[in-house]
Amino acid sequence: MTIRILHTADLHLGSSLKNFGELARERRRDFLKTFDRIVNLAIKREVDCLLVAGDLFDATQVDAETVGRVQDGFERLSGRGISVVLIPGTHDNVVSAESVYNRTTFAGAHILKDPVVTDPFALEIRGATVHFYGFAYRSDRSREALESMRRREGGGIHVGLLHGSLKGSPEWEMRKKDIPFTTAELAALGLDYIALGHYHNVGCLEDQGRVVACYPGSPEGKKFGENGERHVLIVEVGEGSAVVEKVPVQSRIMDELTVDASLFPEAGALEGELARLASPDLIARIRLAGTVEDPLDIANLAGRLQGTYAWLELLDETEIYNSDHVKRMEREDSIRGLFIRKVHARFEKAESEAEQELCRDALKLVMGRFMRGGGD
């Protein structure tokens, strides 16, 4: 027999999302909409249970509206006979007595808050016993917590929930609370499937051709790097097997692009290309590269594109140092020509790449003022 679970993690509901500027408030609503979409998907796909592998919330204390949306979602699932099993993460930990999980009731949800697994939590699902292994990390009490997830005796299906870090990942330097592990260590626990959380990009860990554990990634991009489609996982779990399906659920796409501005020298051509790439639901960071004849007015360009993207960050990485225009102006008998000659001389004497980069930046900045000021 198999059971069908919907596995998610790292929703970070209630985050301030200040990095999105004026879009922050709407972005917070996006996160709540995506949570609702996950609940609806669980109902539509008739899963047996929803697993949340940590960081459902972005902090230990959460605003009342966000709590209410989650309570409503869990109650809707419970009304359809869908169990919810979750563990706290690093952001929404239970260390403080003020933690949302210590102060609030979530009807229909089974929250695994103990610092180690004493006995797995068991549910009867369609005539089979399903054992859930999970813990809430406490630095003073969870030294043997990972080992406590080792499979107990008995039949049925055995599923783990773990908010932790795969050793060797380049994403960050690990701390104890990140609960580092290897794929082999997870496989040795003997569980049928382990629902992971903590890393924000999707990925599955396999051992001897079998899926041992998966990260679903964050279902909505919280920052650049969490680009493209964001997913939850629908997993068919049996004794010794797990078949995984990725399902996109995001409200908006985040993306990072590079545009060679030198390919659009005519007036308005670069703006036209950026408008062509735009979408009202796209959150974009666009790097403008290449050698251009005149410094770009990024603020003006961003203003002209207002409303074509959900949110747009333009980064000017263009180069004018070796442009034909600058070479012509260098020969002028003017303040502008004198300035360019002095910058070029300083560049030639530079003792480091950082000093050369400073010369390039100074030339771009001052030349931009010359162009917009209309004189020398």
Automatic annotation (TrEMBL):
Keywords recorded for this protein, A-Z: Exonuclease, Hydrolase, Nuclease
Coiled coil: none
CDD domains to which the protein is assigned, alphabetical: MPP_Mre11_N
Superkingdom of the organism of origin: Bacteria
Gene3D superfamilies, per database record: 3.60.21.10
Transmembrane segments: none
Pfam families from the UniProt entry: Metallophos (PF00149)
Boundaries of every Calcineurin-like phosphoesterase domain copy: 3-201
Record SUPFAM superfamilies: Metallo-dependent phosphatases
GO MF annotations, alphabetized: exonuclease activity
Protein name: DNA repair exonuclease SbcCD, D subunit, putative
Source organism per UniProt: Geobacter metallireducens (strain ATCC 53774 / DSM 7210 / GS-15)
Gene field: sbcD
